[in-house]
Amino acid sequence: MPPDPRPSDSRPPDSRPSDGSAPTPLDWALVIATKDRIEALRVCITLALEQGRPPAEVIVVDASRDWRGHADRIGGVMAAHPGVRFRYLQAALPSLTVQRNQGIAEARAAVLFLLDDDSFMYPDCAERIMAIYEADTQGLVGGIQTGTAAHPPRTGIEAGARKKKGSRMIGKGGQKRHGWLRRLVMQRLFLMDKDALFIPYDAPAPLSPVPAALAGQDVVPARLFQGYRMTFRRQAVLDEPFDDLLRYYCPGEDIDASYRVSRRYLMLTAPEARLHHFTAADGRIDRFRTTALSALNQAVLLRRHAADQTGARRRYFALMRRRFLAEVLKDALSRRFDLPQARGILHGRTKARHVFAMPPEALAEWYPAEQDRLVRG
Questions:
Q1: What is the pLDDT, as a whole number, of residue 171?
Q2: CB-based contacts of 355, cutoff 8 Å, min separation 6
Q3: Which portions of the chain have biased composition (kind: Basic and acidic residues) (predicted)?
Q4: What are phi and psi of 312, to 5 degrees?
Q5: CA–CA dist 138, 223 (Å, integer)
């Protein structure tokens, strides 16, 4: 069973005053893992610095070939903010999880905004998030996910090209009149929902209620986060680092990490603390490789973390059968007649049989090279 999310001696002392006084205000850091998306990164950092409650630190871990040139450009943005601690690091490996952990290790702030480089915060986003952490004087809450906004926080933002969306047919028409039906189709048929795709590592457990100290806050309990809008107490992601066996784009890394943190801490979503996910085009791998990695990563994470290996394996292959059918439909509706996403699922499912048969030590040696073969072709 997962541990009870109560405060422990590992929690940051500044979140738990013992004398009944008001808590010391917490500081926050923007920690960004990036690769080849300098225009979006520049906007992301600019909007973070313009927050009503600005960051104490900005830390960037860049896997781009021209990371020094990018550092110079972002350094120009940071020059107007000498009071903000700034670190621009070359990535140890081209891996979202490794880069996130590298940034976390460099950070000093109590709360880390582990956003994507194309996540554009509304001006009051950080202020709303930090008010919740500070109201949680017992340190029960380990992570808070921001809300989302359909449009950028202001007009005229130049952040490079956007990623091309999927089918123009999926989800079009009658969205307001038939919103419930559209959501049902997306979740049940196309499996476009993280809860539908995730296989828990432990026996199912109900979400913990919102603590009484947060009764006046606009929050809802959560367990699984989306990577572009995550914030955590620094101690929470030191207790449960991102899984650095994953490489490159690392699909599923956000769900894995947030689930593991949720076994120790309470997790919340703050709908009114909004940001816009721009979904920049550069730096992404193709659909076949992304889908294959998502299927393979899930098998690897289950092999590494699931308590019931037999049950996890059975549920995984049942899910892959459903995912294959969903990806065939999505490819067909999007007129991708080479079926890249469906082929990705087949590739991942085939390799997953090897994953579940492998001892964890052998898996740790084999999987980085396997990802390299897949991505580099």
A1: 47
A2: 296, 299, 300, 303, 363, 367
A3: 1-17
A4: -65, -45
A5: 19
